[in-house]
Write a structure and sequence with these properties.
mainly beta; four-stranded antiparallel β-sheet; about 120 residues
Length: about 120
């Protein structure tokens, strides 16, 4: 019913920038949120940022506040993650997600739809 496709990942040096995009297609919802999670090898999937589509309220993990910014383009059904001042510890597969239940949730199990992920690698 819903497809999420991420793009924009790649290899950058520490201190560099990337912008990730996630385009949604298929069924539309009245009230929902979209967000980003990331997962490094051998680690659990962790919350990065989210945005409520209607109120535009945003939430960020403490580790990325001030460096990463989430935004959306309603006309394009797309959410973005602008990543600045990247650090090697930001290296992970980044996943786009959508929830119709809890717009402020940081738990992966409470999100309904997922993209296939895009690799971000930050070298030192």
């Amino acid at each position: 019913q819903v497809q999420l496709v991420e793009s924009g990942g790649g290899l950058v040096q520490a201190g560099g920038s990337l912008r990730l995009s996630c385009a949604a297609s298929g069924r539309s919802f009245r009230n929902y949120a979209m967000g980003w999670f990331r997962q490094a090898p051998g680690k659990e999937r962790e919350f990065v940022a989210s945005i409520n589509w209607t109120t535009l309220r945003t939430y960020y993990a403490d580790s990325v506040k001030g460096r990463l910014t989430i935004s959306r383009d309603n006309a394009k059904n797309t959410v973005y993650l602008q990543m600045n001042s990247l650090k090697p510890e930001d290296t992970a597969v980044y996943y786009c997600a959508l929830t119709t239940r809890y717009s402020s949730s940081t738990y992966a199990s409470e999100w309904d739809y997922w993209g296939q992920g895009t690799q971000v690698t930050v070298s030192s």
